[in-house]
Specification:
Main location (chain A): membrane
Helix content of chain A: over 70%
GO molecular function, one term (chain A): proton-transporting ATPase activity, rotational mechanism
CATH class of the largest domain in chain A: Mainly Alpha
Helix content of chain B: 55-70%
CATH superfamily of the largest domain in chain A: lithium bound rotor ring of v- atpase
Number of domains of chain A: 2
Oligomer: heterodimer
Distance between the termini of chain B: 32 Å
Shape of chain A: elongated
Subcellular location (chain A): Membrane
CATH architecture of the largest domain in chain B: Orthogonal Bundle
Largest sheet of chain B: none
Strand content of chain A: under 5%
Largest sheet of chain A: none
Low-confidence stretches of chain B: none
CATH architecture of the largest domain in chain A: Up-down Bundle
CATH topology of the largest domain in chain A: Four Helix Bundle (Hemerythrin (Met), subunit A)
Family (chain A): Belongs to the V-ATPase proteolipid subunit family.
Structural class of chain B: mainly alpha
Radius of gyration of chain B: 21 Å
Strand content of chain B: under 5%
Structural class of chain A: mainly alpha
CATH topology of the largest domain in chain B: Topoisomerase I, Chain A, domain 4
Keywords (chain A): Hydrogen ion transport, Ion transport, Membrane, Transmembrane, Transmembrane helix, Transport
Largest interface: A-B, 22 and 17 residues
Number of helices of chain A: 7
Chain lengths: 218, 351
């Protein structure tokens, strides 16, 4: 306990690089004391990470996961569609709708990523020269953009899967019985609405965030 | 992982899944059978089949037609479909499709060996073999005179070799031994196939498990029916039953001890799914049993298409097509022999 108190007091006083090596040493200490997670160290770590890192990670996950979901859905639908279309060629043009639904999921991701990237504005945020920390508004904005990105990304990934699997069944059943297509299309539309939920929440989360520093005094 | 095939299945097998479902929609429906049943001559049958998948295969057959020609052409259609799909199949679907044909291989081996025993010409026998179960060295089967030779000279290079380890004996090949060999082989094959499907896991294991245990139970039932009144002892009979299925193991005990049809019936009726089948049979109608079992099998095979992302559809397609070919053969025979009154006895409607 005594040691922890001392660390906490010491942290702001030193330059960041020196502090980091010291904290790493204490991380080993914490383990030897039987304490699995060194909360002080973690807090210190996250305070040191630039909000730009989280902002960019969120943006890339939004677009990356969405596109992975869309691609996954398209190959699930596409391979079944190709196989079924050998015997019943009429289904190809109708079932392109399933592919387009999957594609829309990728577009959601791209849109959200563009919105998120506009949240990064100049002038850039810099550390406080006294404490070595980033301003609290900048941290909030970084985490908000990250949260928005993973919300959109994961929801669009599973949405793409859902639409892809339903689309594959739609293609196969349309090949057997043309009247089933419209009915399964309704299922597919509801599936693709799931991705939109993620997009809406993502935009709301990032709505307040603005990653912008102040101009240095002239 | 069960339930997650949907995510991975289509990477390798989505295309062929679509293809085999396309083939399935080419199977004859009840309406087609009704038209076929109205036919007066074999040429009428050919005319009726022109509009179906068999059309291109029958188109260039000159009159007069024979029943065997029609059946051969229809089988050719199945074999063509199967080989095209096999050529496109990735692993482990390819292995699965190979497994589906090992049963035909066993039948072919038995056919050749039995034929040789009766001093028939090998080439004539080869023509009668099922093309799905052919392998390179099949013609040399005729030289073997005992089971050990059969194994050492020919079958050691075929996929059937592991199944022989159970049935290897130095005894001469005679009628009875061959029949026992067929059933031992088939037992080992079914056990192996079921184990393979379990290894594949997921929906394939579930659906194939149901189909194969029905197959195993049906074989157990047929073995029992055919061995009543023969010199086969109870223990020998029991050795021929597969090591899985709904009847395993208690039903097998009862079947092994059964001496007449009613005892078999009471053994089978202890399984709820089979009880439903046997209630369709009145007492003393044992000759209808085959047809009822075929109908049950066809019903189960059709049901496999209700589920997606599993391999059983390939097995089911092959079995359904074979049943359809048997139906066409029956209709053609009835028409050719002027027995149209019996035409409905042998048809198992698919849809």
């Amino acid at each position: 306990m005594v040691r922890r108190e001392r660390n906490r007091l010491r942290v702001p006083a030193r330059a960041p690089a020196v502090m980091a090596s010291q904290q790493l040493l204490h991380f080993g200490d914490a383990l030897s004391r039987g304490q699995l997670i060194n909360w002080d160290y973690l807090g210190f770590l996250f305070k040191q990470i630039s909000p730009y890192f989280f902002a960019c990670l969120g943006t890339s996950l939004a677009v990356g996961l969405s596109i992975a979901g869309a691609a996954w859905g398209i190959f699930i639908t596409g391979s079944s569609l190709l196989g079924a279309a050998i015997r019943v060629p009429r289904i190809t043009s109708k079932n392109l709708i399933s592919i387009i639904f999957c594609e829309a999921v990728a577009i959601y991701g791209v849109i959200v990523a563009i919105i998120l990237s506009t949240r990064l504005e100049s002038p850039f945020v810099v550390r406080d020269s006294q404490t070595g920390l980033y301003p609290i508004q900048a941290m909030t904005a970084g985490y908000a953009i990250y949260g928005s990105g993973i919300t959109t990304g994961w929801s669009n990934l599973v949405c793409g899967l859902c639409v892809g699997i339903v689309g594959s069944s739609a293609a196969l059943s349309d090949a057997q019985n043309a009247t089933l297509f419209v009915k399964i299309l309704v299922v597919e539309i509801f599936g693709s609405a799931l991705g939109l939920f993620g997009v809406i929440i993502g935009i709301i989360i990032a709505g307040q965030a603005k990653l912008q520093g102040t101009l240095p005094p002239p | 992982m069960y339930g997650f095939e949907a995510l991975w299945f289509n990477i390798k097998d989505g295309y062929l899944d679509g293809v085999v479902r396309g083939h399935r929609s080419g199977l004859l429906t009840t309406a087609d059978y009704n038209n076929l049943c109205q036919c007066e001559t074999l040429d009428d049958i050919k005319l009726n089949l022109t509009g179906t998948d068999y059309g291109p295969y029958l188109a260039n057959e000159p009159s007069p037609l024979h029943t065997t020609t029609i059946v051969d052409r229809c089988t050719e259609k199945l074999v063509d479909d199967w080989n095209k799909m096999r050529a496109n199949a990735d692993e482990p679907l390819g292995e699965f499709m190979d497994y589906c044909t090992y049963g035909h291989m066993i039948d072919n081996v038995v056919l050749i060996v039995t034929g040789t025993l009766h001093e028939r010409d090998v080439h004539e026998l080869l023509e009668k073999c099922n093309p799905l179960g052919m392998f390179d060295s099949i013609a040399t089967l005729a030289v073997a005179s005992s089971m050990r030779e059969l194994y050492r000279l020919v079958l050691v290079d075929t996929p059937l070799a592991p199944y022989f380890s159970e049935s290897l004996s130095a005894e001469d090949l005679d009628e009875m031994n061959i029949e026992i060999m067929r059933n031992t082989l088939y037992k080992a094959y079914l056990d192996d196939f079921a184990a393979f499907c379990r290894r594949l896991g997921g929906a394939t294991a579930e659906v194939m498990g149901g189909l194969l245990s029905f197959e195993a139970d049906r074989r157990a039932l047929n073995i029992t029916l055919n061995s009543i009144g023969t010199e086969l002892t109870r223990d020998d009979r029991r050795k021929l039953y597969s090591n899985f299925g709904l009847l395993y193991p208690h039903g097998h005990h009862e079947l092994a001890a059964a001496e007449d049809f009613d005892q078999i019936r009471s053994a089978m009726e202890k399984c709820p799914p089979y009880q439903a089948i046997f209630t369709k049979l009145g007492f003393g109608e044992s000759q209808m049993l085959d047809k009822v079992l075929f109908e049950e099998e066809v019903r189960r095979l059709c049901d496999t298409f209700e589920q997606q992302f599993h391999y059983s559809v390939f097995f089911a397609y092959m079995r359904l097509r074979e049943q359809e070919i048997r139906n066409i053969m029956w209709i053609a025979e009835c028409v050719a022999q002027d027995q149209k009154i019996r035409i409905n006895d042998g048809i198992v409607y698919l849809f």
